From TrEMBL:
Secretion signal span: none
Similarity-based family: Belongs to the short-chain dehydrogenases/reductases (SDR) family.
Name of the protein this chain belongs to: 2,5-dichloro-2,5-cyclohexadiene-1,4-diol dehydrogenase
Keyword vocabulary terms for this entry: Oxidoreductase
Gene Ontology molecular function: any one: oxidoreductase activity, acting on the CH-OH group of donors, NAD or NADP as acceptor
Upper classification of the organism: Bacteria, Pseudomonadati, Pseudomonadota, Alphaproteobacteria, Rhodobacterales
EC number assigned by the record: 1.1.1.-
Source organism of the structure: Falsiruegeria litorea R37
Length: 254
C-alpha cells in the first residue's frame, strides 16, 4: 500500500515509532527513522531495513527549524521527493508526569512547547514542502486522552497518573490537525490524526486489569495494533481523507 513512498517517522527509534517504520517497509515503502538520538535511529534502521536501504536513519530535532529544513533537503537530494510525515516524537522535560498539584507552571509551558510546539513546527515546515511538491500526507499522533476526560480510577494504587500536560497537548494536536488540513486542503496536502488507546509497555498487572475493564476483547494495545490505521492514512486509499481523527482503542473511549 506504500510502494516506494518515502515516509518520515519522528521519534522513529521508540517503541511505537520503530513499529511504524517496520510497517512502512513491510508495505513497500522507505522508512526514514528520524530521531534526536542518531545512534538509536541507526540501530532501528538496521533492524527494520537491513541492507535494503528501505530504512535510513536521520538525526532530527522537531523543535529546530534549521534541523527540519536540513533534513528535508537531505531526503530530497537522496530520493527526489518525500511522500509522508508521521509526527510521533514524544519530547518532554525531566519533571514531566507529576500529579496535577505538583506541576509547576514553567514545566507545563516547557512541555507544551516541546511537544505541541514541536508538532506545529514540523507540520509547518513539511506542509510548505508538500504544498510546493503538490502532494504529501501528514499523520499526527494524538491519544484517546486528546478526545476524552481521563479515567483516573485506572491509576488507583499505582505510581502512575495521566499527566495534565498530556491532555492539553494531545487535544491540541487534534485541532492543530484540523487547522492544517483546512489551510492546505486545496494544495494536495492531507493532514490526519491517529489517536490510540494505551500501549502496553511493562505496566503493572493491576493497572492492565483495571484498564481492560473499559475495553472490548484486547485491553491495552500492542504497537502493531496501530499500524493498519496508520498505513491506510498514509496510502492512496485515503487520498480524499483529511482533517480526520482515527481512534484505535478497543472501545476504551466509548
Amino acid at each position: 500500500m506504500l510502494e516506494d513512498k518515502v515516509i518520515v517517522v519522528t521519534g522513529g527509534a521508540g517503541l511505537i515509532g520503530s513499529r511504524f517504520c517496520q510497517a512502512i517497509v513491510d508495505q513497500g515503502g522507505i522508512a526514514v527513522v528520524a530521531d534526536l538520538n542518531l545512534e538509536a535511529a541507526e540501530k532501528t534502521a538496521q533492524t527494520v531495513g537491513g541492507d535494503t536501504r528501505r530504512a535510513i536513519a536521520l538525526k532530527l530535532d522537531i523543535t529546530d527549524k534549521v534541523s527540519l529544513e536540513a533534513g528535508i533537503a537531505t531526503l530530497r537530494d537522496s530520493f527526489g521527493r518525500i511522500d509522508g510525515l508521521i509526527n510521533n516524537a514524544y519530547p518532554r522535560n525531566k519533571n514531566y508526569g507529576r500529579r496535577l498539584e505538583e506541576v509547576e507552571y514553567a514545566d507545563f509551558c516547557e512541555n507544551m512547547s516541546l511537544h505541541l510546539g514541536g508538532y506545529f513546527l514540523t507540520s509547518q515546515v513539511f506542509s510548505a514542502y508538500f504544498a510546493a511538491q503538490k502532494g504529501g500526507a501528514i499523520v499526527n499522533m494524538s491519544s484517546i486522552y486528546g478526545v476524552m476526560a481521563p479515567r483516573f480510577e485506572v491509576y488507583d494504587n499505582t505510581p502512575m497518573t495521566m499527566p495534565v500536560e498530556y491532555a492539553a497537548i494531545k487535544s491540541g494536536v487534534v485541532h492543530l490537525t484540523r487547522y492544517f488540513a483546512q489551510y492546505y486542503k486545496a494544495s494536495g496536502v492531507r493532514v490526519n490524526t491517529l489517536s490510540p488507546g494505551g500501549v502496553e509497555d511493562g505496566q503493572a498487572p493491576s493497572f492492565l486489569a483495571a484498564y481492560a475493564q473499559f475495553c472490548g476483547t484486547k485491553g491495552m494495545l500492542d504497537a502493531d495494533d496501530l499500524t493498519g490505521g496508520l498505513v491506510f492514512l498514509l496510502s492512496d486509499h485515503a487520498r480524499y481523507v483529511t482533517g480526520q481523527n482515527l481512534v484505535i482503542d478497543d472501545g476504551f473511549s466509548l
